[in-house]
Description:
Layout: E1 18-21, E2 42-47, E3 55-60, E4 66-72, E5 75-80, E6 94-96, E7 99-101, E8 108-110, E9 125-126, E10 128-131, E11 134-138
Parallel strand pairs: 1-3
Antiparallel strand pairs: 2-11, 3-4, 4-5, 5-9, 6-7, 7-8, 10-11
Amino acid sequence: MVYGLWAMLLRLSSSFLLRFRSMQPINSKPEDRARPARSEQTVIVGRVGDLPPGRCAAVELPNGEELSLYNVSGEFYATDNSCPHHGAPLAEGKLCGHVIECGFHGWRFNVRDGTCLTASESIETYRVLIEDGVIKIEL
């Protein structure tokens, strides 16, 4: 079987949470792997068909940090996976259009720009690229 550069589905729950584990940045050398999250790297995280519209998934980066990946009507967005309120995983929240609602205390964030619709906090967003059906996130 061919698995590509992303890990297979790690967990499928009733909320259809997919968890991807990216392998290594596609445009880096092995000595670059220990860099901070915003290092101008691109990681492959899965295929478009792996994440149906209206769903979100946690993505584990090579450095162990997590992002949340969203499919909103065929458009893909990525943000930090941690709610700034109490650190809850946003990928386990409820996605409604372009808004993710934290499952712990209901904080809501726009996945396009990271702005919080509930408080003055915001979350980091990341550019998502789709090339030949492969999802890539720029870090």
